[in-house]
Amino acid sequence: MIEKMNKWLSAHKQLCVITGIFGLLVSPFLWPVFLAVIIQSLSLVIPVVEGLFFYEKFIMKKDKEETNENDDDNKQQKKHADARKVHADAEKTEDLPKNHEKGSETVNFDNQEKQARCRAQAAIWYENEGFERIQAIRKTLESENRNRFSVNREGICSISIGKRKYRRIGILKGYPFGQTEVIREKLKKDGFITSMGCNNYLWISW
User: What angle do CA 144, 171, 152 make, to 5 degrees?
Assistant: First the structure.
């Protein structure tokens, strides 16, 4: 095989030399063509590779996350459904209404007890301090020929001195604003006239 190749090269030696010289002369002109083919191939391959990478990295990941979210939502809905079923079964038991009524009665009893305690405290305030202070304000106003004053939420007492103008004349310390009705009942027994004005002002006159 080698001998045949050597014979062929010897017979065509001149042709090989001419072909080599032709290749050396032509190669500088062919390299740009080869480079253009390589660059063109890369310009086509790179976008395809990037597209495949983007699809695998983001789209498939997003689909996987959505699938996981749907699975979580389904599990959550199932839990809620089970909880509602348990709650419905619990409401069907006979003990629930009894316990509920018992709890309501306890709350109502506590509220009534609290209200009674507040009313008692308001009455004590009136007997120990309120009546005496109101009487002192009354004497001061009578000396000015006035027979009416107002009490606000904080117990501040004022008189009207013109259109939308008021003058502060004193304060009822510890005034139980939330128990105004108790104070009105006490004042009525002591000969005072009371009425409720705007912004829950208590007007006292005689």
Answer: 95
How many residues would you count in the chain?
A: 206
Helix (H) or strand (E) holding 118: helix 95-125
92-104 mean pLDDT: 51
* pTM, entire model: 0.47
Sign of CA dihedral 69, 75, 77, 83: negative
Averaged pLDDT, 22-46: 74
Q: Under a CB-based contact definition with an 8 Å cutoff, are residues 158 and 169 in contact?
A: yes
DSSP string, 124-186: HHIIIIIHHHHHHHHHHHHTTT--EEEE-TT-EEEEEEETTEEEEEEE-TT--GGGHHHHHHH
Please name which of 178, 130, 126, 124 lies closest in space to residue 157, comparing C-alpha atoms: 130
Residue 148, burial from CB neighbour count under 10 angstroms (0-12, 13-18, 19+): middle
DSSP run (H or E) holding 204: strand 202-205
Please state which of the ranges 122-126, 138-142, 163-167 shows the lowest mean pLDDT: 163-167
What is the pLDDT at residue 187? 96
| Torsion angle of C-alpha atoms 189, 191, 192, 195, degrees rounded to 10 | 60
What stretch of H or E contains 48? Answer: helix 13-54
State the DSSP code for 93: S
Supply φ then ψ for residue 191, to 5 degrees.
90, 10
Among 187, 112, 108, 118, smallest CA distance to 149 is for 187
Task: State the residue for tokens 């009525």.
Answer: 188
